[in-house]
Write a structure and sequence with these properties.
Four copies of one chain form a homotetramer.
Chain A (H helix, E strand, L loop, with lengths): L4 H6 L6 H4 L4 E5 L2 E4 L4 E4 L2 H4 L8 H12 L12 H15 L7 E4 L5 H16 L4 E4 L8 H5 L4 H4 L9 E4 L11 H10 L10 E4 L2 E2 L5 E2 L2 H13 L3 E5 L23 E4 L12 E5 L18 H15 L3 H24 L5 E5 L2 E5 L3 H13 L2 E2 L1 E3 L5 E4 L7 H27 L1
Parallel strand pairs in A: 3-15, 5-6, 5-7, 7-10, 10-11
Antiparallel strand pairs in A: 1-2, 2-3, 4-12, 8-9, 11-12, 13-14, 14-17, 16-17
Family (chains A, B, C, D): Belongs to the class-III pyridoxal-phosphate-dependent aminotransferase family.
Pathway (chains A, B, C, D): Amine and polyamine biosynthesis; ectoine biosynthesis; L-ectoine from L-aspartate 4-semialdehyde: step 1/3
InterPro entries (chains A, B, C, D): Aminotrans_3, Aminotrans_3_PPA_site, Dat, Ectoine_EctB, PyrdxlP-dep_Trfase, PyrdxlP-dep_Trfase_major, PyrdxlP-dep_Trfase_small
């Protein structure tokens, strides 16, 4: 049997990341992935933002093993459990209260980001009695039908098989360039009773569009968006699934912008350990759910409660971690700027914020070739963006400076190789 | 702070099971749940069918701790991992091959049942190019919009906030009683070009309707349904999320019926440990997915791969376990029949199959009162059904005979108390 | 230029009736159509039920010419006009009041049946705040998207291009034969909170399904349906577009059944002259429209008001006309029974009610061949039904007995020829 | 009985124009409406653009009376009739051929504009296999569900009762002012595979938005729109229901712009006499309809064929009429400019094109007051626009110069009175 025969024979052709990284991974620690054969890779993908604290973080791992050894509840539906209480208490004390969000409540939706988006949309529609929702160009919110309806990606939308309705698509910040005020555009359409845009229940937005290509919304744009929501009585849903949990240098991606979303969705790095976990955080007064209206089997993933509480306690009790993220973000951005200046000052540019960064390439083929070359040299890295043209760096926030530098060196070489080859090809 | 204050203050009012079981659980072993205060309960709910092998099964637990200690990959998107390969190999060898399903493939959808239903519906619509789907009265398939559209439950449907479209609802087996052939009805409507039922992509069906109240489809009905699917070129999707993984006495609920579904969804007890995990199993030739068309962050929950492989190996390598399930199922059914004969031969009856059993009460209030009384006496048990009128026994398949008997004794007393009180009230 | 070249060159291929009757008609009087070449045909199609009072009825024609000569308003949007007032007064006095419907109001929707159906559905949804609607197998209500969603015909549904949603399809009276009570079925599903049938705003039903193949609902079934509507707080919409205006022997098709629909749609023969005209008749208290909520350019077709008022006055002021319709209906039915007994007592049967009658053939090809043969001999007649298997007799209600007899003779010969040829073919 | 009692008692409250013009009209000739009491009004509403050739045009009236006296076919479903052939021949010879549209075909949809829009959308979706359609802010296309989905008006949309889906709403020409290129915006979104705008089947556009407030698209914008359609393989549907039939000074509103729509809808003034009539005109190769796929009872309104053919022959055989329309349009525009300069150079401005003109007022209340005052002085005139803020002049194209001048004098006085009163009120 060849290395991948089992997968090729038994797993659906839908598998995709494995096509970019044709090895079988076995172990992982911090920012490092190790194959079955023992080959080691620096992880600049980090579970697409799910492993902010690295693989198998020892503190979290210890807590989880202890919990297992104690026969702690693993699966608890939405029953009360000791582990859930601890998570709630920690999340409230460490995250919500210090950020002025003490009066928010937590819904344990199903354990996926898509599920928390589905729950958030349902709640917004229920509370407002409206069905239309505004979502943005290049937004990504998940692949279940409700979440997919607000997602922009055509590849995913094309597989829906049913109409994706009750959504008005609007241009994201700077979608039409710096000079076009997309908030004013929305305001005009929403203020016009004959624009054809039915009054929305909510706006759902990512502060940094991870899958969409690391497009960022400025604090100013977000504040105007919040005002727009107030003016037109729409709820503001921030999908912080990828950009949250510290990725941008603060726990929430929006917390230094002076806004208060009505609803926040969190998942990915929330468990801190890569375990499926998602929540909806909502203003107290929006909690108009009836018991059990939105349910699901895995709402009570207690392992995730355990590692999440440990992660919050360990990383967010003071601002040490946040500051280190900001510093590392700067280190990576600087390194990327160097690459850009060196290899393609006219055709390349850096995108993103915090440790959610990427280099925009002229096209998807170039970006793919760079990632492939980097992988050959020991770096797991992927693309994102509407044309898959952005080489996206999403390493664990706990990565060391040495690992960052090593990864950037690999990346630099990959850009040199690929862009150099292109020049050579054009010349020939 | 009172016992539940943290939850009441910070958790959304949507929480529901905790309202029936107002205690804080801390530990669990096998068929036993233990509160923070050390009080022990027999678990006749079992995570709504998620804990077929009991809480913290020692074999699975050992495998998981070992995996953690070895720094095995936890989160792997859909990259190749050692643990995934082992799961695939084991599932194929132990489950699919022996059941003549060797030519089926596995899709790792998101880790919830709802997500696997969403993926199955998308695939069926893609493959057939049609959008309508047939689902059944009292069917339950999940709460994300795609899954909710095929779910019957009005409480959940009412919270959708958007139209639930592209579904034709049909009467389940025996929905109109023994004498009405619901397959013939469907055939007539599907054969009539002006019936208004657009040609469906698929039929989605549960062989036993867990949430719907333990309604069962006979082998004969299922075979006719399969034929109907062939005749009208619809795919047959069996949602075996609750009834599968051994619950009815065989791994799949349908495997002794002589049918071969086109697509099967599995979740709940698949990981064997209560960890979020779900798959779509499909005929080889239906695997027409393009890479990444339906994706999600937690498709690669490697902890679940580890426990699932261990569970399959441990419980399904031979037929010992299946036989014990069948025997225990009989024991429970017999016990229930006794309760029925004793307390309400005219108003009560036993429903279900295998270890998926329940007693149908005259109404939901009665059933709720019985569950409440049982809980007061040490038994965690819940209702299901369209009027929540079925007292549902869904204990771990690994439960001991002693535990069964003890639970039935508690249940017997609860029926006596509640029905006795009712008689007393009516007399007064 | 050949006879049809202009049509073939300039008219869309969507044209259809002209394919069955490949001649160019020029004039028409009563039950007679005359081609450009002067050939005369008896009209057993009557504009698919639009010409109940015959072509160019002299009384109506005179009124219309007079109105034209007086420069009466032709097009009046929904402004007040003398002609509209006269129609309203006449309709109320001659039709509504004597039938106990004096407290109903009239909405002038757009001048097509489909438009009145769209308006009726909107109103029902608005008044009840629900969106689901029940419609029946083989029901036909029009081809605009709202009307099409409640129509059963697959050929028309297939051309929608968008989802036809918010409709639950139910079996019509006797759809599953005499012994299956389809009202009880609906009641069970509507009473079951988990059936998946969302609480409907309304039921829309034809008392005789014209396009569906002359299926009839009994008075008993209609009364039970009315009760079902009251029980589940659904509005009862009777689409009397084809079966109304006297076609069944009374002005409304339901008026001897002892029911009072909440909403009635009328069109086709309402103008009495073949002019586009449609109205929605509703219980007073359901008239919750805001001004202009549903509008359209041709709501005020004053020519139709003029001819409609004249028709009502002339035909419905007393019961003479109704009685003659009943008598002629019997004459036609008797004639058809003779044909059935003579040519195919085992394979043919008579369907319908009043002067809305047809002979059910074994298949659509046979029915088409019979119509073709009849046309060759001077009779314009068409098929209906889900397999186009019903030879449908829908002659003007003003047809003479001689014309009836002549038409039946032609029909008899056509059955003889076609069925005889079939026997001959089978024998050879 | 008071003057309106019959209406108030028997007609639905949905009636609307009659509220602005509380009189009962009885006769009409040319640009004049006459009440039952003999009071005469100049008609600046003209059936909302349905009476381009005036009321009861004598040539058309004569043709219709003659046809009636000859017992011509009135109602012909979609059978071949002499009158239909004559219409087709005339329309092709007089309109299509000279405009380079000889290879287009005509579909006789139901006789309302909404129905032709429904048919056009169905056809576009069928031909392209896509379901999304682009429509514009402030577009108006009708009130049946399919047509309503592309309509912008919130009042009408709000009455839908069902989701209006499969439409992407885009900003019309100049919607965001002169400096924002809305074509470039659309191009960016349509070129972006992750914009969330699913590839559209078609764009539906009005060259002048009649109900939307007389917004005009320039020739340059329309040409760019046509190019955009070609680039993204979308069909270009021009809804010329209100702006067509000569209203802008040429038969089609777009014919001097150098574009060729794929599909054109016509209705309103098409019959020339105010009779219900609508057609879909399509490129030959798009005529992929199967016989009868979209049908309706009143597709063959032969009276309308007769008057339409007469109107085309009489008004469009040479360019005399078109030139007179252009001249009258200038006369009205000049008169309006005078009103604007006199009464509100800062707050009023003239909008529109050809004889489709209006004065934009600061708000809807002002516009309504002006129309009310004008009506009191003998002028029937209405508002349009998203805030009903445009006083809209839509008189018959056959109006005399004297009538124009008289109407403008009344209008001038109404502006003086209403704006003068406002100044007085503010001062007091």
């Amino acid at each position: 049997m060849n290395t991948f025969e089992q997968f090729e024979k038994n797993e659906s052709d839908i598998r995709s990341y494995c096509r970019s990284f044709p090895v079988v991974f076995k172990q992982a620690r911090g920012a490092e992935l190790v194959t079955r054969e023992g080959k080691s890779y620096i992880d600049f993908l980090a579970g697409a933002g799910t492993l902010n604290y690295g693989h198998n973080n020892p503190i979290l791992k210890k807590a989880l093993i202890q919990y297992l050894e104690d026969d702690g509840i693993t699966h608890g539906l939405d029953m009360y459990s000791d582990a859930k209480e601890r998570f709630l208490e920690t999340f409230n004390r460490v995250i919500l209260e210090p950020r002025g969000l003490g009066a928010y409540k937590v819904q344990f939706s199903g354990p996926t980001g898509a599920n928390s988006v589905e729950a958030a949309l349902k709640l917004a529609r229920k509370v407002t009695g409206r069905s239309n929702v505004i979502s943005f160009t290049n937004g990504f919110h998940g692949c279940t039908i409700g979440a997919l309806s607000v997602t922009g990606n055509g590849h995913h939308r094309g597989a829906a098989g049913v109409p994706l309705s009750e959504v008005s698509r609007m241009p994201y910040a700077n979608y039409f360039g710096d000079k076009v005020n997309t908030i004013a555009m929305m305001d005009k359409m929403l203020s016009d009773p004959s624009s054809g845009i039915d009054k929305p229940a909510a706006v759902i937005v990512e502060v940094v569009q991870g899958e969409g290509g690391l497009n960022t919304a400025s604090a100013d744009w977000m504040r105007k968006l919040e005002k727009l929501c107030r003016k037109h009585e729409m709820l503001l849903i921030v999908d912080d699934i990828q950009a949250g949990c510290g990725r941008t240098g603060t726990f929430f991606s929006f917390e230094e912008m002076g806004i208060k979303p009505d609803i926040i969705t969190l998942s990915k790095s929330l468990s801190g350990f890569g375990l499926p976990f998602a929540i909806v955080v909502m203003r107290n007064e929006l909690d108009q759910w009836e018991p059990g209206e939105h349910n699901g089997t895995f709402r009570g993933n207690n392992h995730a409660f355990v590692t999440a509480a440990a992660a919050l306690e360990n990383f967010w009790a003071d601002d040490t971690f946040a500051k280190s993220v900001q510093a590392k973000g700067k280190r990576i951005a600087d390194g990327m700027q160097k690459i850009v200046r060196k290899h393609g000052p006219d055709s390349l540019y850096v995108k993103g914020r915090g440790m959610m960064l990427g280099i925009n390439c002229p096209d998807g083929d170039t970006a793919a070739a760079i990632c492939k070359e980097a992988f050959a040299n020991g770096l797991v890295i992927e693309t994102s963006g509407n044309h898959s043209q952005v080489v996206k760096c999403l390493c664990p926030l706990t990565i060391t400076e040495e690992q960052i530098d090593k990864a950037l060196t690999i990346l630099d070489a990959a850009f040199a190789k690929v862009l150099g080859d292109q020049v050579a090809n054009q010349a020939s």
